[in-house]
Amino acid sequence: MPASVVVGTQWGDEGKGKITDLLASEMDMVVRYQGGHNAGYRIVVDGEAFSLQLVPSGILYAHITPVIGNGVVIDPAVLLDELDRLLERGVDVSRLVVSGNAHLIMPYHQELDRLTERFLGKNALGTTKRGIGPAYADKSSRVGLRVQDLLDPKIFREKLDLVLHEKNLILTKIYNRPALNAKDIASKYLDEMAPRLAPMIADTVGIVHDALEKGQRILLEGTQATFLDLDHGTYPFVTSSNPVAGGACAGSGLGPRDLTRVVGIAKAYVTRVGAGPFPTELDGELGELLVERGHEFGTNTGRRRRVGWFDAALARQAARLNSLSEIALTKLDVLDTLDEIKVCVGYEAKGVRYNFPPYHQSVFHEVTPVYETVPGWQSDVTSVTTYQQLPSAAKNYVKFLEEVTGVTISVVGVGPGREQFVRPS
Hints:
Helix content: 25-40%
Strand content: 15-25%
Mean pLDDT: 93
Number of strands: 20
Distance between the termini: 24 Å
Largest sheet: 10 strands, mixed
Low-confidence stretches: none
Structural class: alpha/beta
């Protein structure tokens, strides 16, 4: 049975957790394929909210095997804390499997992340300062420590001594910070955390392929979104990995022919956290209204999100980059009170019309959105249980988004709850 992928089509926070949770009910395995604990997602089950960072959303289903794939970078302290909080709330976490090839976030990654962002000043990228970028940098530089190293204390200490020598020179000579102690780090990781993590560590590539051969259904989930992708996003205001659907193969060990369904998640408007271009951004009272109604604050960081109108040019590019088979539209209810709604259908810059984001960053920073305006519905949709119950204007908005993006919308979210969604067909 081929695998499905869930991917954000904007700048993150599109509601991937809810849609992933919805799709997970049909799956046997949920695999997280990239990112770290720099992005969280919130799932509401029977009125009870669960905020997850590293643990795949499938953990909330007793029949699912949740897998953290090789493409993820893991802070083991954060992972264990998250598991403990789930245990306290009665969630069975014994099914979790963690790839031995996933890379570890180390204390020097976090320290360097904080220092680098601080020294960038006004040019700061807006990172969460949790060590994600430096961990991926060490992975590419081939000096990273992996989860499997926790199972071999000798190798762990040898690798740590080697890399810490360089990191301490940077900390002390460049940033005038105290050196980190290798023995203290090794003791924390090997003595405190490794014994708890060891039963979870496995060959996840073999596990996911065995599942496919048995005809099981697999869902691949990432963090962040298409335009935070290291290669295809608004660089340098991006994450340090590849959230696009293609990254699901590298981060899980599956091959391209194993993927046959790619579900793109899009808000009925757009949000962004941190610095970077945002052509449709809204300020003033309307922007504050969307922030308030959409509760647009980071799940992990609490940072206020920037908000703007739906951007069809971004959505078209996301459809190309991810080979989207469908779109799941979230937070339609946030627009309930508006009398009219704008949709960006393209851009203009220096007399040139763009139907997709221009490749050159200097042009993209200067584009002016081309809007079309559609009527609002000014009616509460949070209680509807079928698509037919939506106001005509709301259904027309969904249809218009299908037309301007060229992608079928298969699910429409009408509230934060697990069951608050409708299907157009």
